[in-house]
Amino acid sequence: MKKTILNHLWLAVLLLVLSGCVPGKDNPKVKSPKNVWTIAKADGWSKRQPWFRGSNFNPSTAVNQLETWQAETFDPITIERELGWAQGIGFNCMRVYLHHLAWQVDRKGFKNRMDKYLSIADSYGIKTIFVFFDDCWNENYSAGPQPAPKVGIHNSGWVRDPGKKLADNPGLIDTLEIYVKDILTTFSKDRRIVLWDLYNEPGNNNLGNKSMTLLEAVFKWAREVGPSQPVSVGIWNKELKDLNLFQLENSDIITYHNYADEKDHKAAIDSLKKYNRPLICTEYMARPKSSKFENILPLLENEGIGAINWGLVAGKTNTMYAWEKPMPDGKEPEVWFHDIFRPDGTAYDPAEIDLIRKITGAAR
What we know:
Elements: H1 10-18, H2 39-47, E1 53-56, H3 65-69, H4 76-88, E2 93-97, H5 100-105, H6 107-123, E3 127-134, H7 164-168, H8 172-186, E4 193-200, H9 212-225, E5 231-232, H10 241-250, E6 254-257, H11 262-273, E7 279-283, H12 293-303, E8 306-310, H13 350-360
Helix pairs in contact: 1-11, 4-6, 8-9, 9-10, 11-12, 12-13
């Protein structure tokens, strides 16, 4: 989500994170954590999958994860319409954020809504990557009606999970464990789910190694359940060396974020390939930063790497606006930062749609 260009100088990732840490006989520093998939198992899983391509998905009518999943605002009509547009351009995978508070308020209903979402996605041939925790954007949140988006501000209503609530109430960790294990157990063999992304951008918002406790815990909980799907936490910031190493050592497949141009992105790929595990890019595509479909999607296809951009439909999250450039007048920016479609289904850039369809092989 929120980044700086320096966070995506992936040659530095190679030097600072991967040096001396590549699995193999010559790299004894790398641990072999218990229950992490072997490279052979990960490779076998990868060979059974299609080339995943899609978007981070939040329906355009939801300002954040709570508005997506709470009973009062869950919107299957919009979800179905927008996933239909995704299918139409050849997308087959969506990355979707959960939130523990929506589960805590209504556990049974929350899981029923997850199942409803999965049924809709499956009807369009779309697999799902679910995300549990998140260190991005607003630290405070509550159940019930969510705030309206702030005019012209990127992701003004997005909320962390668990955010400040865990620091204020350390006992919340017990609830989070029950939550993660409940969801993983319920959907542990669900073929509609391709991957569990346990924690989005741990250490963001200057949390750094303060996020390690929850990161370690969520991997432990996932291993205790042992879902049939792989688990992962994506690399996103070169400065977070301890977190990065832990994520790489404990992920079944490697996921990462990159919002830079094709040269930088290729350096990231080359460094991460040395782990000999399947790769999925779970965030890319920021047009003003030269991360575009025209230069990144062909690269990922050629490399056989999953390609999940941010995002699908412009809406209440305001992600057409840039991270660092609010537009108080609320006008549509000349160059969209993220997103592909307007809420009425028309394309931001019809030529871009043609390119995506050509690469994915989607029928016109």
